[in-house]
Known about the structure:
Blueprint: E1 2-4, E2 7-9, H1 11-39, H2 47-71, H3 77-83, H4 88-106, H5 116-133, H6 135-138, E3 143-148, H7 152-163, E4 169-175, H8 177-181, H9 188-194, E5 199-202, H10 213-221, E6 225-228, H11 229-237, H12 247-251, H13 260-295, E7 301-307, E8 313-319, H14 343-350, H15 358-364, E9 368-370, H16 377-386, E10 399-401, H17 403-407, H18 414-430, H19 433-449
Parallel strand pairs: 3-4, 3-5, 5-6, 9-10
Antiparallel strand pairs: 1-2, 7-8
Helix pairs in contact: 1-2, 1-5, 2-4, 2-5, 4-5, 7-11, 13-14, 13-15
Amino acid sequence: MLRVFHHWLSARKLAFFLVETSSIGVGAFAGATAGIIAASTERPWSLAHELSGIALVAVALAAALQLGLYALDLYDLRIAGQDRPRGARLLKAAGIAIVLVALFMMTLPGALPAGGLMGGAIGALAGALCARSFMPGLFAEPRRLLVIGTGERARAVAAAIADQGDEFFEVVGLVDPRELTAEAARPLEALAAERRAQYVVVACEEQRGVLGAEALLRCRVRGTQVYGAAGFCERVLRRIPVQLLRASDLAHADELTTSPWRRFLKRVFDLMVSALMLVCAAPVMLVLAIAIKLDSRGPVFYRQERLGQDGRRYSLWKFRSMRTDAEAQGAMWARQNDDRVTRVGRFIRKTRMDEIPQVFNVLLGHMSFVGPRPERPVFVDQLAREIPFYRLREAVKPGITGWAQIRYPYGASVEDARNKLEFDLYYVKNGSLFLDVAIIFHTVRHVVLGRGAR
Length: 454
């Protein structure tokens, strides 16, 4: 794992991305060159003269194809492995890339001779196929974990691994720590080697005095990564399960101390992004306001009390997507196929356009552009009684989008709130402008593909 500005990244996925990008770029360059040569039989041709055009189409094809692969989840190693026998998503990504680059090249007449684009596209696809043919052996092999513990903490680690969507992990055993400390017990490093474990995760119910540090040290020096349960989930799964969390884990975390400079930069970032979004969305907001008014009786905007940073209350603005009597019987969570949603409301909730007016909350300082989802006081009171550490979400400003929103589907139950809190806690502990930009980038894909809304 690599850490960039507090955020943990998968070194394996980053390595695959770089390898594939290089392969696509080289293939596109070679293919464009071959295509131009094949189409230039009746006139002289010089590589030096056409070098800039060939390089441009290679870079454009590499960027466009990578964008298509990302949009179709082909950097989710599980989905990529399932798609490999058919290649359907890869071909769709290649189609998207060719169309985008063709449109781009039309704005630059004369930038590339005949045959260059088609040859480059064939070469780029060949480069992607070449890289992905090696992916299963190099990047998609499951990472093997040996979990020390058999109780609730160990089961929580196993459950978190099962829920992880974009990496391969395999639990090769849950070992009772008493078996490792018995007089005739096999050494831990021998057991890890026998089961070919790349990770040893210590998830004992009682940490002290159960397993000696020397055994863990011997595993580490032999190349096996050793983690505590909470540390493994944070670094590798990028979530912090509440079952594994102790107050002392966060009390000693330097990352939770936010400097005035970091707060200032985040506020400037929020203002810039929100102002840009408001300018770009103004025509859309006008059309939506008219559509909402024509579709059902009631106001265009909907105000609702939410809890912000440090538990402060504020009025959140949204486009109205439900009937005006939607909560005549009291506060309710949204449901799948909720019959209280209007026709226009169903569309704007699916595309998340109902949340555009929250930009005003960001400009007023009630919210940040990125942060935990703001909740209603009545739900917060209920969830805080049932879920440990729930109010830690209030350590930062709530956001229009967030780490939990892009990593977990829409939640409408206490269990969903518990699972989303694990991602919110990760953001509270590891949030940075780098992670904010990454979340916004992922959010664009979710909005375009209509994911995670209800």
